[in-house]
Amino acid sequence: MTYCLAITLNEGLVFCSDSRTNAGADRVSTYSKMHRFSVPFDRSLILLTAGNLATSQAVVAQIQRDLEEETEFNLLKAKYVSEVADYIGKMSVREQSKHTGDNAPMAGFDAGATFILGGQIKGHAPELYMIYPEGNHITASEQHPYLQIGETKYGKPILDRIIRPDTPYETAMRCALVSMDSTIRSNATVGPPLECLFYRADSLQPQAQYFKLDEHHPYLARLRQSWDDNIRQAFDNLPSLSEVFETVK
Amino acid sequence: MTYCLAITLNEGLVFCSDSRTNAGADRVSTYSKMHRFSVPFDRSLILLTAGNLATSQAVVAQIQRDLEEETEFNLLKAKYVSEVADYIGKMSVREQSKHTGDNAPMAGFDAGATFILGGQIKGHAPELYMIYPEGNHITASEQHPYLQIGETKYGKPILDRIIRPDTPYETAMRCALVSMDSTIRSNATVGPPLECLFYRADSLQPQAQYFKLDEHHPYLARLRQSWDDNIRQAFDNLPSLSEVFETVK
């Protein structure tokens, strides 16, 4: 499993991903799931991947090959981020179809991969998409300013409570980390290193605010301790239940 | 769907349940999922139900019938709470088997029900069990002092962060409410009224600390507002990210 999320803010886009992959409990590995493609002053795109690792690696490799071979359509030729989302969706479906149907190696095998694609192409506002295994995609909205892929449930409530379009990017990044940490605690197939990146709207620069935290990074330990302490305090300050109690028989 | 949970504390047992049931988006109803059986100074048992409503209602009805008909085994004759868990597991499997196999009305139909059973029988410590649709059961432990059934993922992280065996019962009840509220926000098939009950260890009394909050109860509104405010404050007090940022190209 995997957990990745991206948030669309007035200030720009926040991306966060874990690095654990597994194919059964004894095939656990570490792979970065955050991929960046950038042309200074023209376009800046970030891709997060979840699901079948072979499929997502094949898609990322094909993106690179299409750039090198200057094919009819590639990341440099896209006019809109949504065109790139279509392109990735098609490649993903094509890759999956090689391993399904009559050629499927076994029942229950799932070649599906899910992607989050975000970024900006000159002349347009930043865009954010989630691309389903079926190749279609949805975008975020002001009412629902974030997208998640992989093991999404554990980390969702904190996003619902904190994230608004006007949330400052540093708060959004901390919220992404807490959402990630909650998921790591609850699901052994999600794990560090954690990568987190902020793309500032209209910067169109390859430079980005970025950090990567491995399992023993002191910041991660301090964040966990601080969050646990603060959450306990938050509980102590909730309204007392004494007014609602009734004694029932 | 449904969400119920129970917590085992040094002080006793906390139970919390929602009341929404649904069979498709246009068959949403309200049913209590908390059932109490009690003999003063001898035994006090609480049952929470999730899954197929017909199965869980049939099990609860059978428990009542066995009491009225004074059958060979019933709640009054159990020596241990685990015996009651076995009894409920067997009834549940029997009830489900009526609707599966060759008699199954349609593919994809699921008669499965899951239960949480907790309480105390005189001479023994309080016990807490989760009973699977297959009829077997597990108990809570000091390392994992709570059990959940139904839509469990959204509300799990807050329990992991707060609940310890020495948590005061009022804090545990507020934590159960916050866990429930997080789930309600994220999943439309979980909803109020919320019921919450505290059984004090060794009381063996039918009296219990109990409350029921419907959707418009002012306490629920105040709890939500207070929690949202406190959580934001908790975020503002997290260690700054400035030390971990690196600018990448």
Automatic annotation (TrEMBL), chains A, B:
Gene Ontology CC, one term: proteasome core complex
Gene Ontology biological-process annotations: proteolysis involved in protein catabolic process
GO terms for MF: peptidase activity
Coiled-coil features, chain-numbered ranges: none
Protease among keywords: yes
Keywords: Hydrolase, Protease, Proteasome
Keyword Hydrolase: yes
Pfam families for the chain: Proteasome
Official protein name in the record: Proteasome-type protease
Classification of source organism: Bacteria, Pseudomonadati, Pseudomonadota, Gammaproteobacteria, Cellvibrionales
